[in-house]
Amino acid sequence: MVNLPPSFIVGPRAIHAAARSHGAWLEVDLQAIAENWKHLARLAGQAAVGAAVKADAYGLGAAPVGEALWQAGCRHFFVAHLAEGAALRAALPYALIYVLHGAPEGFEADCLDYGLIPVLNNPHQLSAWVGLARRMNRGPLPAVLHIDTGMTRLGFAPRDIQKAAKDRELMAHLDLRYVMSHLSCGDERGHPKNEEQRKAFHKLRRLFPKAEASLANSGGLFQGRPYHYDLARPGIALYGGAPLMGEANPMRPVVRLCAQILETRDITEPTTVGYSGTYKLKKGRIAILPVGYADGLMRALSNKGFALVQGVECPYAGRVSMDLVAIDVSRLPEGAGGRGEVATVIGDGITIDRLAEWAGTNAYEIICRLGPRLTRLYTGPYANSNEEAPPAPSS
Ligand SMILES: *Cc1c(COP(=O)(O)O)cnc(C)c1O
């Protein structure tokens, strides 16, 4: 039995090892992430393009993803939590790392120690950050101000930001890097809410005439020039998700999830498959894959969609269980779909958006939930390969 570290850098030997230890693995194409970033950077023209790498880069691994993006030219990184920023700092010593939730109360000094830039979302966070600046007495501290323009989640209410802007003494303690807001319908072209939010943002940012501005997420980047401002913050598009709903996806796929068939059995008499017997068949063949909802293969996929074996669509048969799922391989030619064969769960046209549609969710949730038990294999020239030689042929 091979014991792998939770993330292991790549090549046939690593795949071999992962296959033997779990029978399922996740390939993350760092080259594709870098190309996706470059694509967005071209689209943004004069505007800078950063990267949302919160939630461990949407489940794909913030350190390797961050390093690949840095090498591609990305300099601005957005995390949700202070702890995520502190962890990323170890991988990216020179990056600009912004903490979207701001520093938790009482942890402002830690934020500064790690060289992280807090996004200040309300008057409390503003006064705590300014309080630190006063105590330090070493001049203004870097910060981003987040204004809510209709998302109604984080960010200053318009009234509060107007009040803050007027307080010259307070503002003198901020080295204000950006004024930002976040779109609630950025992934829908032509949604009236986008223009509403952009106009509100355009007006409110004038309270800080010297500060640069940031509005666009992935979708926002595709809503046209007026949405670009000075810095964009894409996430899902970097990871291969469709930036706009219902439109062709220009991004390269990044994630591939493979699982090796554990067992295949011939069904010769009518039976049901899995918990609660929800899949019935009279005869045929059923193969078992070692992935389940603990690995992020959502239970909502029960009896929805398919995996690929030798390019053939093999429908999910019955309930997805915690560690296992059955697929119907009856349509495969005789002798195919046996034990040890590799099924593609994500990849080869099964996009994260397609899987999301089957599961009744979005691509974000599909990749964020890919479990820690799946070994991540990083591919592409941005991966520091630690392989010496290809695997010896088995038997
Ligand atoms: C997550 C997030 C982003 C990235 O959004 P995508 O839709 O993944 O491009 C940008 N800005 C903020 C404030 C976010 O929370």
The helix fraction, in percent, is: 25-40%
Mean pLDDT: 93
What distance lies between the first and last C-alpha atoms, to the nearest angstrom?
Answer: 17 Å
Number of strands: 21
| Oligomeric state of shown chains | single chain
- Strand numbers in spatial order across the main sheet: 1-21-2-12-20-17-18
| Strand percent estimate | 15-25%
The tally of helices reads: 13
Overall radius of gyration:
24 Å
Q: Which residues form runs of ≥5 with pLDDT under 50? A: 1-8, 388-395
Bound molecules: pyridoxal-5'-phosphate
Q: Tell me the major beta sheet.
A: 7 strands, mixed
| Helix-strand makeup class | alpha/beta
Overall 3D form: elongated
Features of this protein?
disordered N terminus; alpha/beta; binds pyridoxal-5'-phosphate; seven-stranded parallel sheet; 395 residues; 13 helices
